[in-house]
Design goal:
The chain has 3 helices and 6 strands, in the order E-E-H-E-H-E-E-H-E. It is of the alpha+beta class.
Length: about 120
């Protein structure tokens, strides 16, 4: 049975472009991994059982720790990550927000309304 996917649709002159939620999540994860001080992605710590199932599915695809809201004209992303000990959390979070918004907008052409960073842990290594 086919799995239901969410798409961001961009109307164009000759048709439309549909970008999967998984693609947007992969772009966000790739961008945040390049931010100094980010040690990894985490699952949504405050989510429901449905979110846990979705995060298990996303963990297999490498997009664990990203929640995307595609309602309205712009994207809202929630990223759940851990920070390396010794790096100022507000600075790391701000750099992550900027990196994710820039990467998603550049690669998809979709405007990003908000990137919410949720720090759920600190790693000592």
């Amino acid at each position: 049975m086919a799995e239901s996917k969410e798409y961001m649709t961009l109307p164009e002159e000759n048709g439309s472009i549909n970008i999967s939620e998984e693609v947007i999540a992969a772009i966000a994860v790739g961008a945040v991994r390049d931010v100094e001080g980010v040690s990894g992605m985490m699952t949504n710590l405050g989510g429901s059982v449905t979110d846990l199932v979705a995060n298990k599915k996303n963990a297999q695809k490498g997009t664990r720790g990203v929640k995307i809201d595609m309602t309205g004209a712009a994207l809202r992303l929630d990223l759940y990550l851990s920070v390396q000990y010794g790096h100022p959390i507000p600075e790391v979070a701000e750099k992550a927000q900027t990196a994710v918004a820039s990467a998603v907008e550049a690669m998809t052409g979709c405007s990003v309304e908000a990137v919410n960073i949720h720090v759920g842990g600190v790693t000592l290594a």
